[in-house]
Task: inverse folding
């Protein structure tokens, strides 16, 4: 870790985090959940909120892809995603569902996150996406433009793309 200039788990806990919470709405795959933890660690995401059937750590299957990031990234569990969305909004977060919907903001040309407020992104179930009632409760939708034959992508890959978009616009305390 020293040779790669990586911080320790304790230093990670104390480090400034990107004000972004990743909300997993009924994500069923423990490998996808672990991958989201690992990516969130890489970019110092504030927290992951696991909802519904999204299993929380500890879990050997989550650890398999998280590789210990489930111990560095803060997380919470909610039985109901709506409760998580309401709490985030009450705390001043701008909560965006990552979903294909009418009026969505397209990632890339239309979307440039600023950090005048903290953000949360809601990622959905691998087959069904974000629950429609959760989409309706969010402040808006962000969509990744796709140009192939499929209309969806893996949730862990999608989360990584979104986190990268936020990270490109966050200075991590550098002036």
Result:
């Amino acid at each position: 870790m020293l040779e790669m200039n990586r911080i320790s788990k304790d230093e990670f806990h104390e480090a400034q985090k990107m004000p972004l919470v990743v909300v997993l709405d009924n994500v069923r795959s423990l490998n996808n959940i672990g991958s989201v933890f690992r990516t969130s660690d890489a970019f110092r995401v504030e927290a992951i909120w696991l909802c519904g059937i999204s299993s929380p750590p500890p879990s050997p299957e989550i650890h398999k892809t998280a590789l210990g990031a489930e111990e560095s990234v803060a997380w919470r569990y909610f039985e109901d995603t709506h409760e998580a969305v309401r709490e985030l909004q009450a705390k001043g977060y701008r909560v965006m569902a990552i979903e294909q919907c009418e009026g969505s903001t397209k990632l890339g040309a239309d979307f440039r996150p600023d950090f005048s407020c903290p953000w949360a992104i809601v990622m959905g179930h691998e087959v069904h996406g974000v629950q429609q009632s959760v989409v309706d409760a969010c402040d808006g939708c962000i969509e990744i433009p796709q140009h192939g034959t499929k209309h969806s992508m893996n949730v862990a890959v999608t989360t990584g793309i979104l986190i990268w978009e936020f990270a490109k616009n966050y200075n991590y305390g550098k002036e």
